[in-house]
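# nightly structure sweep
# worker-07 picked up a monomer target from the shared queue
# config: single-sequence mode, recycle default, output format = structure tokens
# input follows
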Amino acid sequence: MSAKWLKYMVVILLLFAPVHLYAQQNVNTGRHSVEPDTITIASEPDYPPYCMVDENGHAVGFSLDLFKAAAKAVGLEVNIKIGVWNKIKQDLADGKIDALPLVGRTPEREELFDFTMPYLSLHGAVFVREGTSGINSLADLKTKEIAVMKSDNAEEYVRRDKISNHIFTTNTFEEAFKELAAGKYDAVITQRVMGLELLKKTGIESVKPLDMQLPNFRQDFCFAVQKGNKNLLNRLNEGLSIIIANKTYEEIRLKWFGPAIKGRIATKDILKIILYTIIPMFFIISGISIIVLRKEVKRQTKDLINKIAEKKKVEKELRENEAQLRSMSGKLEDQVVERTTELQDKVKKLDKSQQAMLYMVEDLNRITTELKEERHKLGLSNKHMEAFTYSISHDLKAPLRAVDGYTKILIEDYGPLLDNEGRRVCDVISAGTRKMGRLIDDLLAFSRIGRVEMRHATVDMEAMAKDVFFELTTPEERERIDFHAVSLPLAQGDPMLLRQVWANLIGNAVKFSARKERALIEVGCVAEGGKPAAAKDSEMDVLTISPPSATRTTASETVYFVRDNGAGFDMTYSGKLFGVFQRLHSEKEFDGTGVGLSIVQSIIQRHGGRIWAEGEVGKGATFYFILGEA
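# output follows
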């Protein structure tokens, strides 16, 4: 398969949703405004393994299986006719049939038909009688007698590039090969795989392909429809996209060709794949990140404005109350002089108090109305966030899976054919897609934290920590790491969310101590009195256990911690640890997305608790957290 074919595949997958919507429209200004549920196609009898006839007279082949699978994916039934290529090609141009499953795309045919995206790209070959000499280049064919099938793209190629002055046509390639074996022509030009299959089928052993390249004779095989039949074209394109995405295409390819197809992909072609996949993905992710950050800035700005307004309101009320107190103090001194004046002042104050109560009731009603409006806006925001999360989960991760999948195909099918640079580029693509997948997963997890309904239960923290450690590490890593979990008290909280807390903190401890020849990881808690609970064996004595700062805890709080002797961090930058996308180490040192600790902080805050960390460069780090009352 060529890099150009793969590029078409990726672009079609990236644009899958718009194509799907477009293909579902029923209104069209052309002659094919309503597409039937049953269509008629035609197949050649002798173009193996793509289109041929079995011993029962039924049309079979790779292209026919592919066409039927694509049609089935979009709800189309297929009737198949069998005929020679020149006849069925003209039938499609005249509208007597709806489509052809195997048509090489050429400039001449683009004037007659509309083509789907290519599903297979192969090169042609020159076939000669065994023992033939004197044909080593294209120039040597100029004076030779060349046979091709009538109306085939091989004929279009030899006439368009003026390969020979002596060109002969036959009704089928089987006829051409038989006449070549009998000594009638000097060579036959056709597609290599089909030619080899046809020679095998006919039992002709005296004809062999030359080891010679035909640079301008590459066949991009597509489905073809009558010119202007956009509805059927769109449905077939949609069907191809579906069977490529759900692996049906790969199953059909393996059925007819086996696990490998000959060919070589150059490094420059792989770089083209990167140009059409990784770079667009980068801009898509960057755009989404900018939108998310802008929304967060707007939200925080709005909260700040509300707090400032509330503060000004309280200050105003305090000033008014102070003025009233001062006024009342001055009036009381005057009221002592005369009883009547005192009574009149009291009546006036009562009137003012009643008026103030009316104002307070009006303000309370206004605030209640505003609160309802804000709750309504918050509900809409949550719905938008759910839609946004759904869009990320489905519309972004699907192309990533496709990129990763095709990269694996490149490595598995063509790994031995690639040079070192080609294999390195494939590894870079695979690593990049996995990293983007992890980043999307972390962003989705971070966005869901505030919206997930809490399910409180009693959690065995010690068992959960040990279980998480064994899930995250391989047997080799467990041989290198001394892991200890002291007696941890039970906790009240959401088991799923607390498991995610342990997974992030223990996972970080494993990651950042990976360069230690002997890593030490301790999971424990601080008992009453501020002293850590004792470890279960004495091996952890090499770790210095320092209780958390007294200003962060109270005597009644249980502080859980995860400690390691890994890379550690500079306490100068401890304020950045729990920010989204904040990293204190480069990606070359330790991989990661920079979202994990933000997720942990959000979960702890949802439980009414708090989290902090202490560390020293080169000596390790300790993360403490407290859970509030359930």
